UniProtKB/TrEMBL annotation, chain A:
PROSITE patterns: 4FE4S_FER_2 (PS51379). Transmembrane segments: none annotated. It comes from Pararhodospirillum oryzae. It comes from the Bacteria. Keywords: Electron transport, Iron, Iron-sulfur, Metal-binding, Transport. The lineage of its organism: Bacteria, Pseudomonadati, Pseudomonadota, Alphaproteobacteria, Rhodospirillales. This is Ferredoxin-like protein.
TrEMBL record, chain B:
Gene3D superfamilies: FAD/NAD(P)-binding domain. It comes from Pararhodospirillum oryzae. Signal peptide: none annotated. This is Protein FixC. GO terms for molecular function: FAD binding; oxidoreductase activity.
Amino acid sequence: MTMKIEEKLYQNRYRVFEGEPHVCIDPTKADVEALKAMVNICPAGCYVETEDGKVEVVPDGCMECGTCRIVCQDTGALQWGYPRGGYGVLFKFG
Amino acid sequence: MAEHFDAIVVGAGMAGNAATYTLAKAGLNVLQIERGEYPGSKNVQGAILYANAVEALIPDFREDAPLERHVIEQRMWILDDRSYVGTHFRSENFNEEKPNRYTIIRAQFDKWLNKQAKDAGAMVICETTVLELLKDETGKVIGVRCDRDNGEVYADVVVLCDGVNALVGQRSGIRQEVAPEHAALAVKEMHFLPREVINERFNIADNEGVVIEILGTVTSGMLGTGFLYTNGESIALGIGCIVSDFVEKKINPAHLLEKLKAHPSIAPLIRGSEVKEYAAHLIPEGGFKGVPELSGDGWVICGDAAHFVNAAHREGSNLALTSGRIAAENIVALKKAGKPMSAENLKLYNQALEESFVLKDLKKYKDLPDTLWRNKQFVTTYPELLAQAAERFLRVDGVDKLTKEKEIARSFRKARGVLGLVGDAVKVARAWR
């Protein structure tokens, strides 16, 4: 891939509410297949799989598309809400 | 915030702004709540604006709305890895006094449309996320709860225009979750170039625009499409596929976008551009089968939240604007007649939509999304066959034409079988009817 996801996200504007991630993984279900799928397909690359097979999420670059929310809906592994009003991604063009 | 309103509109996208404007203009006391920093800051679209749906709200919108270019040429490209087979339709008739379609930049357009709603008298609160609906003991919706201190606000009716994720309705138990096979994940980049360069590359004058819709191997076997839209000084380039296909293929959409950018038919069009934004968004693609319950006791749903996208024609913003307007018109009519916003009375909205193009078009194509999703050959095998056929037909290499035609016919039979070909034709005809 010629342009990495991190480089793409660098163009975007965000306002992050520190200490209040809007996407959280239930640690007891961090190894479900749906989460592992997100490691591959999250357009912002927010998901990583650790060596012990568990998935972690860092939603700072999240564009709030909701893909992980609907992919993981039946697993109960993900708590997903919109960021606090005024926070999160702020599209200049959209 | 414990004030009581005639109506609360959740969200400031196309549907929410159309609803708010219509309610405020009719003199209703309306509150609109938007989670973004300003209206438009959370909204993502290609984007094409269909004038007709805006005219129904604001007939002279062209005078000051932020429009990029009016569309004079539509291309449909079917790509394989090295070529495209395409149809182009360009007409001087689209250079009319009141053009039919425009490219727009959503953050700017939404801010403008929202200002019209504010000027009409609506109260607009930004940077506030609606968490859930408030109900009375009978289950009637009586307001919303927001993520602010004392964030409970009350109204006779709540108009849910909170977009494809539709969290408010789901949390409040009035609708189902969106299925992964009924949503497309699309990514898009904004490529900036000088206006003259875009004019030259697309053979267009200053305000004329070109739209390219793209099918084929760029979606790596998944059901999806790409697009390229010319704005004034930028090109919007994007690609989207059904979410469950991404899950199955384990492909990142950013990778697909890079593949599209590198395609020999696309690369020269964006050469030298500066990328200023990367966006991702879900598109409701389930068609009529994805549409939830549209109204109930004290609430209605419009736009993407109601799954109003005509995937076959790449239309969405017009369905959103129209459904928001129709919902508001029916609320105004009930209010003026002194009738309550009950489930029974709000069915007026459903009926009006049934009589409009919104539900008529979704019903027409109700089987198309599933048919295409279950029959990937339409986006994989056929584009390649077409490209190969075109090349074989046009390449002059000493082989006689009859032999070439037979080879082309054989390649189709070999790929799908005679029964397969007939079956595919029947499937498309049925789904299109």
